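hi! just following up on the protien thing from before. the input was this:
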Amino acid sequence: MEKDDLREQASQVVDALQDKAAEVADALADAAEEISEQAYSELVAIRRDKLKELQQAGKDPFQITSYPQDSFAQPVKDNFKDVEEGQAGPKACMAGRMMSKRVMGKASFADLRDDTGTIQMYIRKDHIGEEAYADFKKFDIGDIVGVKGEIFRTKMGEISIKAEEIVLLAKSLLPLPEKWHGLKDQELRYRQRYLDLIVNPKVKRSFKMRSEIISEMRRYFDSHGFMEVETPVLQIQAGGAAARPFTTHHNTLDIDMFLRISLELYLKRLIVGGFDRVYEIGRNFRNEGMDASHNPEFTMMELYQAYTDYEGMMNLCEDMMRTVARKVLGGKALVRFGQDDVDLEAPFRRVSMRQIVKEITGVDFDTLPDTAAAKKLADERGLAYEERHQKGDILNLFFEEYCEKNLRQPTFVTGHPVEISPLAKKDPQNPGYTLRFELFIAGHEYANAFSELNDPIDQRTRLEYQDFLKQHGDDEASGVDEDFLTALEYGMPPTGGIGIGVDRFVMLLTGETSIRDVLLFPTMKPLIK
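and the predicted 3d structure came back as:
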């Protein structure tokens, strides 16, 4: 037999063995999953039986309405860390979820986790009584319990609570997952955030940090004389940003309405009304794509200050971010985000869009005479654009394609084209561009700010152009908001305004690189059963 024939036969045998091995592996995986599901069902049935026994014995935990939780795990461990072994400590009373349990004859250990942390419980039959100890041995991991007793240090040096009473306050009818791994469990974490918070303390810390970040932002703005306000979420006219809105219908008024895409136009009405410094932290809704930095509903902070401009907003934005970061991080405003070491302590760079495009691509848009020349250049680069796009639009496309991803350290990009900035004042020195900036960090936008356009005639012209674009297929263009234009006609002072993406700022300070990890309940496609 020829060597080539032998090689071919050997290859066929190897392929057949690999196919068989794959079949066996699939069969074993299916069998393991079936066994796992059966075991899980049995555990659930056992827990339900335990609840039924408790209820029949007159010990229904769900009948308990309160428990005197006057002590908390982490403060007790911090405050009494100097308690020596054998020394009698103070009395404590706390409640939480039992996360582990080790029964050893007449004495047992269990871990109790509350909102502050975890503490070990020491339970002895002769301390709590035979009946109570027998009941405790039937407790399951995940049950909510209350405990009263004395704080002490074990021989192993751990601050613990010596139980004099332990009470079942709520029965966990479903077993907690043992561990999280892989994409499937990542999806489950987002869908069942309550489970994620129970089993993953790091996740809980991130969301506590989110709350602290927002509190510090409010504290900063309040201390600088700004007033927090609330504006409508349901709006008749979607405006203030280039985005596709969610639509709904108001039955009583029989009108279509939109979930707001921006806070801007109502906050500017308040500037007209005489509130010189206002801000709002609230939800916006945009019917757009989803990725690591985008969710259809997200939190924005928008702020408007009379008698200042976009440079004033730059100074305020930089100082606020640095101040909040120092407060939350407890030191210098230095952040590790993905592969970047972001320095919020150093002065943020300030550079025009035209300059950064020239630096990175070598193209100087100031030398291009018109839109035709810009489109020719885009064609040469294979950069897609729409027929309606003007020279300024092409500049922005160059920036988005080639520059954004390279802006790793905090950078204020200024001088946006007027075509993409319908609410910003034109630059008096160069009317084709506006007094606007966007802040970029680690390749993503964090803030957008203008010297706000307060000329009602110019504003009408620009909004009418937006309406023209909308009528010709641009579903992100805004229409004409007549009431807003009327407000401007009464006179709005020179104003600086800024919007900051709160979720992205939280991502930066927590080091989370997916927006889903800083939203308690991110938008998810429903599971089809």
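The CA atoms of residues 149 and 164 lie 5 Å apart.
The first strand starts at residue 91 and ends at 104.
cheers
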